[in-house]
Each structure stands twice: as structure tokens, then as C-alpha cells.
Amino acid sequence: MCGHGQDGHGTTVARASRPWIQSRAAILLMVPPANHRLARREEHTEAFYRFASWIIVGAVALVGLGIATDFFILMEKVVHSIAFSLGVALALLIFSYALWFAWAICRGAANHTS
Fold first, then answer.
1. For the chain, which residues make up each domain, given as ranges?
2. Cβ(73)–Cβ(18) below 8 Å
3. What is the number of H-type helices and E-type strands within the chain?
4. Which end of the chain is more exposed for a tag (fewer CB within 10 A), N or C?
């Protein structure tokens, strides 16, 4: 159990990785417009749309991981239990991914069948 002002090892790692995760998500979100303008000369091709889609999916995955990391740090500060905080953060991450990815895949499949 950590006292006030002291972080456990898990919280320290999470605090150190949080800016890295969030900055990489922001960088990934900036890649498609720059690539479209500079490398592709603003041409709308199937290859560009495929590339941009995968980059944005990667950014969304990192955003979910960043939110779960923030929630882990918050929960660890409130309940002082790394195991409980990690479990809740993982549940949030799984719920976020299910909401963003599984729901979108199911909705896309429903649109193709109708």
C-alpha cells in the first residue's frame, strides 16, 4: 500500500508511458493529412484510403490505451490497489475496443447485407 505522495511501481510505469502513448496517437492522427498532401499530391486513390484507414485505426487503439492508462492511475490513487485498478482499467479498455471496433464491424456487416 502506498502512502500519500508515493507511487507504486505500476503507477510509475503508467505515468511514464502515458505521455508516450498519447503523443503517438496524436502523431498518427496527423499522418494521413500530411501524407495526402505531400506524398500523394492530393490524389484520392484506393491505396491512400486503405493507408489512412489503418493509421486511424492504430490511433484510435492508442487513444483507448491512453484512456485506460489514465483510469488506472486514477483508480490506483483512489483505492490503493494495483490489482483492482489494473482489472478495472483492462475492463474499460476491452469495453472501449468492443464499442469502437466490434460495433463498427457488426454495423458494417449489417450494411453490406442489406
1. 9-113
2. yes
3. 4, 0
4. C
